[in-house]
Amino acid sequence: MYSPGARTVEVELGGAVRHLQMDYEALMEFQNLTGRDPLKGQLGRFGTRDLATLVLVALKHEDPDLTLQDVARWVHLGNAAYVMEQAVSSASEGAAARNLPSAPTLAAANGGTPPEGISAARR
Q1: How confident is the model at residue 115 (pLDDT cuts 50, 70, 90)?
Q2: 32 pLDDT exceeds 90?
Q3: How would you classify residue 105: left for phi > 0, otherwise alpha for psi between -120 and 50, otherwise beta?
């Protein structure tokens, strides 16, 4: 469901422009699916399933029927760093707009580097 006032970030996935929205509903769903709360710094090492889950919950407001398998078809090694950056940007912009503490970035959760096997290439 779309949260009025929540910031969105455009990302091209699956041949379409989509809008990531990392509101509290998305953060809570991420926690429900992974058992980790990003606002408490419980991300640890971020893996491929984590990234797909993050994108899934950030896109549910546009397409409630979206599945993890759909997202997994759109994210690949050539665009994973770009997608991760956009997802983090969505979370950070949303928090800043409300003067909330920002969620830790995925790169910071990974010691300042992207997850193993993910290059810095965009799209």
Answers
A1: very low
A2: yes
A3: beta
Answer whether 7's CB lies under 8 Å from 94's CB: yes
CA distances from 17 to 33, 59, 107 (A): 25, 11, 24
- Asked if pLDDT for residue 64 goes beyond 90, the answer is yes
Q: Give the containing element (helix H, strand E) for 77.
A: none
Contact of 46 with 88, CB cutoff 8 Å: no
Q: What letter does residue 38 receive in the DSSP assignment?
A: G
Domain boundaries, given as residue ranges, for the chain: 9-109
Structure tokens, 74: 């759109």
Q: Are 58 and 87 in contact (CB under 8 A)?
A: yes
Q: Any alpha helices (H) in 1-123, and if so which ranges?
A: 24-34, 48-59, 68-74, 80-97, 106-109
d(CA 113, CA 119): 10
Alpha-carbon gap, residue 64 to 117, rounded angstroms:
30
3-state secondary structure (DSSP) of residue 116: coil
